[in-house]
Design goal:
single chain, Helicase, Ruva Protein, domain 3, 8 helices, mainly alpha, Arc Repressor Mutant, subunit A
Length: 200
């Protein structure tokens, strides 16, 4: 059996595909100038997948219909944020409990020095494990979970040297604040907790 590999579409190809879908699905005058170019550019930068580009156009159309407006550049941004939020939520709903607890620590942990370090995050994680009656894992194993969360795009975990104090990870959360808050609430809900967040 031969495996077929398809190259990602560039912005121009995606624009043509979207324009064909637009002609079939929407009445003329329902889309602001620049919307198709924006969706094509966003999609080519992120993945080059025509199905996901069409999905963004569809989500934008549903959102515009709900608001009783035409599809605008602003609505495309909001639809894109919704898709991103849903993607992260769906992944977290099916993730192992330890990974959810590690993400909770990364999202809610605070540090006086700016970036959250592994040790600080592990303390928040341990407190959360005690709250949900989950056996905490060692700091070394917790560090592996941070690496996994980095691969999934939830956080950026950069290893830095602290001189004689050894090496640690600096944890940065690059998610939009609304996505971050929704994830925190979802994780607490997954563990049958109320939505209020205890300060670490």
């Amino acid at each position: 059996m031969r495996e077929m590999i398809f190259e990602p579409y560039d912005a121009d190809c995606l624009r043509r595909i979207l324009e064909m879908r637009l002609q079939k699905a929407l009445r003329p005058g329902r889309v602001e100038d620049g919307v198709i170019a924006k969706i094509a550019a966003l999609s080519s930068r992120q993945h080059g997948d025509a199905r996901k580009a069409v999905n963004l156009l569809t989500r934008s159309a549903y959102l515009a219909e709900r608001l009783g407006r035409m599809i605008t550049l602003d609505i495309v941004d909001r639809a894109n944020e919704e898709i991103e939020r849903d993607k992260y939520l769906d992944m977290m709903r099916t993730s192992p409990k330890q990974l959810q607890a590690a993400l909770y620590a990364a999202l809610t942990g605070k540090s006086r020095e700016g970036a959250l370090h592994t040790g600080d995050a592990h303390l928040v994680y341990t407190r959360f494990c005690n709250e949900i009656s989950l056996d905490p894992i060692s700091q070394r194993a917790f560090s592996d979970l941070l690496y996994e969360l980095d691969m999934y795009g939830y956080i950026r975990a950069r290893t830095v040297s602290r001189g004689r104090y050894g090496r640690t990870k600096e944890i940065h959360v690059s998610l939009e604040p609304a996505v971050r808050q929704t994830l925190v609430r979802q994780i607490r809900k997954n563990f049958d907790l109320n939505s209020e967040v205890n300060s670490p």
